[in-house]
């Protein structure tokens, strides 16, 4: 991959853009309430600074969110029309187990199946369940954050659920790794699975005071088509904004992190909270990368993205569905991400 030298003034301006992306959603109530519009505007500014506008890029920006938006509207329609049947099954599940075990098992299952059914579907399933389970707001937010971390971690195990796995598999398909379809599952399952289990336990612990018999509300009235379309439009705007931001900040990422050692790269990949992790993987990965550096890189990308709402697709979908604001999310997700980061780094130092 050929990397062109980015002028210093461009990197400085893009650095300011990145700083605004991190800070403003947490300190400005207007930005928090209009996050998708803010991200679109900042993404457009980043692309302008980096000189990335073209007819082909505009077309890709408009088409990039279509698949995710289609999944969102289809799953929303299915849940809306068949919710009575779906949630009667959930009644049995939640009545059979205490709440702490129910939510722990739910997060565990979502984390494990996210690599097969897509992160969007997993996040929607989570949100639909939480909408009908009678939980306190704080508990619901905690469970959502823990589950989205688990979903994002589990998604990297197969090259199906999100672009990250596909990019890695394609980049390493030749010598010396000869990555096949199960390459990621084979090498990273035992790095990912324990974290998913711990996140499931954290979700179960958060729900420990919900009572032994949860109250679930099956609503007979259906969600309006306009409401479903409005939510789908918001998610479309979010995903388009992430595409703009990733493309706009690519020169900054190429200038600052591409040649870093695996251990340093692990921490540098905290920028995945504002840059799509598939974009970072495309920049960082080379066919000759060592398995050790690859492990640091992938774990860093998977573990950090959920620290902010805009960091990962499942966060966006679940937060939009449940009305979770940026500060609510960060208050739980940032400490969780820091603990994951510390735990993973210590384990990597010991076992790699």
Task: Provide a short characterization of the protein structure.
With about 350 residues, the protein is an all-alpha fold.
Straight-line N-to-C gap: 27 Å
Poorly predicted ranges: none
Helix count?
A: 16
* SSE pattern: HHHHHHHHHHHHHHHH
* Computed CA radius of gyration, to the nearest angstrom: 20 Å
SS class? mainly alpha
The helix content, as a percent range, equals over 70%
The largest pleated sheet is described as: none
How many domain units? 1
User: DSSP strand (E) fraction?
Assistant: under 5%
Features:
single chain, 352 residues, mainly alpha, 16 helices
Would you write up a description of this structure?
There is one protein chain. The protein is mostly helical. It has one domain (65-240, 260-351). It has 16 helices and no strands. The two termini are 27 Å apart. The model has no long low-confidence stretch (mean pLDDT 86).
Topology:
Elements: H1 8-27, H2 29-33, H3 35-50, H4 55-63, H5 66-96, H6 99-117, H7 119-132, H8 137-154, H9 163-171, H10 183-206, H11 225-256, H12 262-268, H13 277-284, H14 291-304, H15 313-322, H16 326-351
Helix pairs in contact: 1-3, 1-11, 3-11, 5-7, 5-11, 6-7, 6-8, 6-10, 7-8, 7-15, 8-10, 8-15, 8-16, 9-13, 11-13, 11-15, 12-14, 13-14, 14-16
């Amino acid at each position: 991959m050929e990397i062109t030298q980015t002028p210093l003034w461009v990197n400085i301006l893009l650095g300011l853009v990145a700083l605004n992306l991190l800070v403003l959603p947490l300190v400005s109530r207007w930005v928090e309430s209009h996050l998708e519009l803010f991200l679109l505007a900042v993404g457009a500014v980043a692309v302008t600074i980096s000189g990335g506008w073209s007819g082909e890029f505009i077309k890709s920006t408009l088409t990039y969110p279509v698949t995710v938006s289609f999944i969102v509207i289809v799953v929303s329609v299915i849940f809306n029309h068949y919710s009575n049947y779906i949630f009667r099954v959930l009644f049995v599940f939640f009545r059979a187990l205490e709440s702490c075990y129910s939510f722990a098992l739910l997060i565990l299952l979502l984390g494990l199946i996210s690599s097969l059914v897509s992160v969007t579907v997993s996040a929607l399933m989570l949100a639909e369940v939480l909408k009908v389970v009678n939980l306190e707001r704080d508990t619901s937010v905690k469970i959502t954050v823990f589950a989205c971390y688990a979903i994002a971690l589990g998604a990297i195990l197969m090259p199906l659920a999100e672009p990250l796995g596909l990019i890695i598999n394609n980049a390493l398909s030749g010598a010396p790794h000869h990555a096949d379809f199960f390459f990621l599952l084979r090498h990273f399952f035992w790095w990912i699975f324990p974290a998913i289990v711990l996140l499931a336990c954290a979700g179960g612990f958060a729900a420990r005071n919900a009572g032994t018999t949860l109250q679930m509300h099956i609503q007979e009235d259906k969600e309006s088509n306009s409401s479903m379309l409005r939510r789908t439009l918001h998610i479309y705007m979010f995903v388009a904004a992430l595409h703009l931001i990733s493309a706009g900040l690519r020169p900054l990422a190429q200038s600052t992190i591409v040649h870093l050692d695996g251990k340093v790269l692990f921490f540098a990949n905290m920028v995945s909270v504002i840059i799509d992790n598939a974009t970072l993987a495309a920049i960082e990965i080379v066919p000759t990368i060592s398995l050790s550096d690859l492990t640091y890189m992938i774990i860093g990308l998977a573990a950090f993205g959920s620290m902010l709402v805009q960091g990962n697709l499942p966060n966006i979908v679940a937060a939009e569905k449940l009305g979770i604001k940026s500060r609510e999310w960060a208050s739980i997700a940032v400490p969780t991400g820091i603990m994951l980061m510390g735990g993973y780094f210590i384990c990597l130092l010991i076992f790699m």
